[in-house]
Design brief:
Elements: E1 8-9, E2 15-18, H1 21-33, H2 40-62, E3 75-80, E4 85-90, H3 97-105, H4 112-117, H5 123-133, E5 144-152, E6 161-166, E7 171-178, E8 183-190, H6 200-211, E9 218-222, E10 231-232, H7 249-260, E11 268-274, E12 280-286, E13 303-307, E14 310-316, E15 328-333, H8 342-347, H9 351-371, H10 375-398, H11 403-409, E16 413-414, H12 426-432, E17 439-444, H13 448-452, H14 458-462, E18 468-470, H15 475-478, E19 489-492, H16 509-515, H17 517-526, E20 533-536, E21 545-548, H18 556-564, E22 575-578, H19 583-590, H20 594-611, H21 619-637
Parallel strand pairs: 3-9, 13-15, 17-18, 17-19, 20-22
Antiparallel strand pairs: 1-7, 2-7, 3-4, 4-8, 5-6, 5-8, 6-7, 9-10, 11-12, 12-15, 13-14, 16-18, 21-22
């Protein structure tokens, strides 16, 4: 029999409370969607117990009395086949009454609504979503129809223990108990058809499979009629302290799932030990899927920090830049003090060197995958880019030191690929470009459809020149920080003059404008309040006109985003370029009626703005012009 004393109910308030609405939905979905993955409950409960032991060991550095008379931290799995129960017991930090209600009755993690909205009823897909979200405790209800949690926070008196009971149907009760032992026990009363989880060999196999890497001993013990002595099942050695040659890929994967509370395998990982001036071990993982709070830059992030194998803190964000916030892992330092805090980390002179080295290691991991010639690795990198590409682009803005390496990791959609997939690297682009091409051409747009139909592409497409299509929200910021790539400058085809590879026989812009000077003078005068100037276009083939942004002006996409955010935007007017050979422009040039010339000029400008995704300042005026034009055409036909 295990030696934990049975808690005694003490006088106090017993409350029946309701789960948060999201928890009720989550419980229903987990019970019905994860049935085929039901064994993961044991991994999640042992992982939570390990976290509790880690946190106690850290708090005991400052308050040794929290260890009471149990300095040895351990986890026990106790099963009773006759009673059909499995209990996971730890002597870690434990919980107070308020913590029990907060941790076991609500979901505090951001992204709850989005998470629940993406649940589909497809078991395989939903299992992945739940894994990303990290709500492992509730997986107990996949196999149990009643769960009893008894806990006491380290440092609180015995009579401030807490008992939490629920059947997972919408409510739970909380009552005070006297509990001599600190820590937490989670007892699962298994459903009728889940008695197989009380078989010793099965529990032992699951512990070895999922929790062998746990740094604390995990005892397995039978209670009831067949009671026996506890025996340690796992290796109880922190995985990152072992030699890489002694660790299997499956062990690395299972450690990631414990660390990240993720059900999916990681995409790749790197395990490294640094010796010399600085000594530390790092184990870094790239997840295979993006978490729900990826775009919340204020969400907890970072590596799990140990000092001399003693847990110090979760989410130590100082070791990696913000654009690598998706990286999970552990860093174990031999140099940092055991009493290190977030404030001290910010002031530690050794940290910059460690941060730089870890950043380079992550980039090198991705570079190796991206540069691989195998179809499997290419597919893996494409998967990574779909999930994390926009975040990685932040590095071009924030990390100039690694910009050259980051450029090689970028992937783009392009006019060469009709699928719209962001799969073209800059090396791919230049390999296809003619030798005479001195620039890397790109186009900013709000979405792929608008980009592909943009009039700015017409001459380039006619000349067979590939253009990269940039439609992510971060792209207008990113392009302002693009350095050259292999000696080639980047050229926005929607901005200013667009120098093309030499083909001979082309007039300069000044020469073109001079050739059509009277017409340009007239249309400039007509549109002077709406445009900076009007030029004859060298980029149009099929469209009558397009809007061009000045070299020093904000792009239309950036202006719209700033306006949506309530930011002040400097006043500016666009340049209108007209296709002098287009029938509509020829019709405009031949118009002698001043009123009709003015209306048609404004319509040409309005259509150019609409093609760019702009909102018209005066839509009513535009509609009136179009109505009048249609009536005139109707009269002419009649």
């Amino acid at each position: 029999m295990h030696k934990e004393s049975d808690p005694v109910t003490v006088e106090g308030t017993k409350e029946t409370l309701g789960f948060q609405t999201e928890v009720r939905q989550l419980l229903h979905l987990m019970i019905h969607s994860l049935y085929s993955n039901k064994e993961i409950f044991l991994r999640e409960l042992i992982s939570n117990a390990s976290d509790a032991a880690d946190k106690l060991r850290f708090e005991a550095l400052a308050s040794p009395g929290l260890l009471e008379d149990q300095p040895e931290l351990k986890i026990r799995v106790v099963f009773d086949p006759e009673a059909r129960t499995v209990a996971v017991i730890d002597n870690g930090i434990g919980m107070s009454r308020d913590e029990v209600i907060a941790n076991l009755g609500t979901i505090a993690k951001s992204g709850t609504a989005e998470f629940l909205g993406q649940m589909t009823g497809d078991r395989r897909k939903d299992a992945t979503l739940i894994g990303q979200f990290g709500v492992g405790f509730y997986s107990a209800f996949i196999v149990a129809d009643r769960v009893v949690v008894e806990t006491r926070r380290a440092g609180l008196p015995e009579d401030q223990g807490v008992r939490w009971i629920s059947d997972g149907q919408g409510e739970f009760t909380v009552e005070p108990v006297s509990r001599p032992e600190r820590g937490t026990s989670v007892t699962l009363h298994l459903k009728d058809d889940e008695s197989g989880f009380t078989e010793s060999y099965r529990l032992e196999a699951l512990i070895r499979k999922y929790s062998d890497h746990i740094a604390f001993p995990v005892d397995l013990q039978e209670s009831g009629k067949g009671a026996g002595d506890p025996r340690v099942v796992n290796s109880a050695t922190a995985l990152w302290t072992r030699s890489r040659s002694d660790i299997s890929d499956d062990e690395y994967r299972e450690f990631y799932k414990h660390l990240a509370h993720d059900f999916a395998d990681p995409l790749l990982w790197s395990h490294n030990r640094v010796e010399g001036k600085r000594e530390y071990t790092s184990l870094l993982y790239i997840p295979s899927r993006a978490p729900f709070d990826l775009w919340n830059r204020e969400a907890p992030r970072g590596l799990k920090l140990y000092v001399q194998r003693v847990f110090i803190m979760d989410d130590a964000e100082q070791f990696l830049p913000l654009y690598l916030r998706f990286v999970k892992g552990v860093i174990d330092s031999s140099d940092l003090p055991l009493n290190v805090s977030r404030e001290l980390l910010q002031q530690n002179p050794e940290l910059d060197a460690m941060r730089g080295a870890l950043t380079r290691r992550v980039i090198d991991m991705l570079s190796k995958l991206a540069a691989s010639g195998s179809d499997e690795d290419r597919a893996s990198y494409d998967k990574f880019w779909q999930g994390f590409g926009q975040v990685l682009k932040e590095g071009l803005v924030e990390d100039a030191q690694n910009a050259d390496k980051l450029l090689k990791l970028l992937r783009f959609a392009s006019t060469r690929d009709a699928s719209g997939a962001q799969s073209v690297s800059l090396a791919d682009y230049l390999a296809r470009a003619p030798e005479s091409q001195e620039r890397i051409y790109y186009l900013l747009s709000d979405n792929p459809a608008t980009a592909r139909s943009s009039p700015h592409l017409e001459k380039l497409r006619d000349r067979g020149i590939e253009v990269l299509l940039l439609t992510d929200r971060i792209d207008p910021w990113m392009v302002a920080h693009l350095p050259e790539f292999e000696g080639k400058a980047f050229q926005d085809v929607g901005r200013g003059q667009v120098p093309l590879p030499e083909s001979g026989g082309e007039l300069t812009q000044d020469a073109l404008n001079e050739e059509h000077k009277p017409f340009l003078k007239k249309i400039r005068r007509t549109l002077k309040d709406r445009v900076e100037t009007v030029n004859v276009s060298q980029r149009l083939v099929d469209s009558p006109a397009c809007i061009v942004t000045g070299e020093q002006e904000l792009t239309p996409q950036l202006r719209r985003m700033l306006a949506a955010a309530g930011q002040a935007i400097p006043e500016s007017k666009p340049t209108l370029e007209i296709n002098i050979g287009h029938p509509l422009v020829e019709r405009l040039a031949a118009e002698i009626n001043e009123h009709r010339f003015e209306a048609l000029s404004n319509i040409v400008l309005d259509h150019a703005l609409l093609a760019e995704g702009e909102q018209l300042e005066n839509p009513v005026e535009y509609v009136q012009r179009m109505n009048n034009l249609l009536l005139e055409l109707g009269g002419a036909v009649a």
